[in-house]
């Protein structure tokens, strides 16, 4: 896994995210297209790209924490068509290290409005999360947009080598007793959890957690690729002039390695789930412009960098561009028990 606290996570790199007006065209708006703006920068998109490429060649299913109906709306689905599940995974971003942050499966719950009054369907299904079939990186970005309205967010991704086991995944997440990943993951499957702190002071750190039933070197290979891609992007960001140039640069930043075949193989299998896969020392480095030394401490890879925008104040999203947090807002993960 990778841990990134406030010092690790750089602010947006392209100055235009502060200085230029965002288009109403969703294809030209960086928030709609990549879930990137003047608050949530390019680094978080790199995490999603790494998760997407790591799980290539598998059937992907995701649980966006709390904002089930918002995710359905962005996917163009009726809420009644969503696969409902009783359990969701939690990594608590307020914990100082991954050993205590990795909570595991907890009872699901969904965001329901206080006003107007709940309708009967909302009342009956407030204790369910949604399990979504994710067939494109665009879909994964939509889920990120759905959960981005809070100070923290979490998306759990299950990548199954055998697509026929989708019903087994759904039934396991719906069983009466608390599931365990060993009940879900089989050789060739991959579990990824992205638990992210959006706002300064909202939590201790963001966590990218990867678990597999067998060892794999693919995390190292992909993290090295995205680390180098981010280094190139950092060097060119100040020269980007327009949103069209920005989108072209982002498409290159988030692209997979040329040799990646979207079908991953493993070399060994075991009967037990690796509940802590060794983190690649470049996973966090993919957020920065330099590689990390090859060291591992309790599976945590960390890097400390200077603020690349030290002369700029940390800005929140302008109205209509990103989230607006009401006064007295509390994070969902912090309040969950």
Task: Note down, in words, how this protein is organized.
With 337 residues, the chain is of the alpha+beta class. 26% of the residues lie in helices and 15% in strands. The strands form 2 sheets. The protein has a 7-stranded antiparallel β-sheet with strand order 1-9-8-7-2-6-3, sandwiched between helices. Strands 4-5 form a two-stranded antiparallel ribbon. β8 and β9 form a beta hairpin.
Overall outline: globular
**Tally of separate helices:** 11
Distance between the termini: 23 Å
The largest β sheet comes out as: 7 strands, antiparallel
Radius of gyration: 19 Å
Q: Please state roughly what percent of the residues sit in beta strands, choosing from under 5%, 5-15%, 15-25%, 25-35%, 35-45% or over 45%.
A: 15-25%
Average pLDDT, to the nearest integer? 77
Q: What helical percentage do the residues reach?
A: 25-40%
DSSP summary, beta strand count: 9
Quick structural gist:
The chain has 337 residues and is of the alpha+beta class.
Name the descriptors.
337 residues, 7-stranded antiparallel β-sheet, 11 helices, alpha+beta
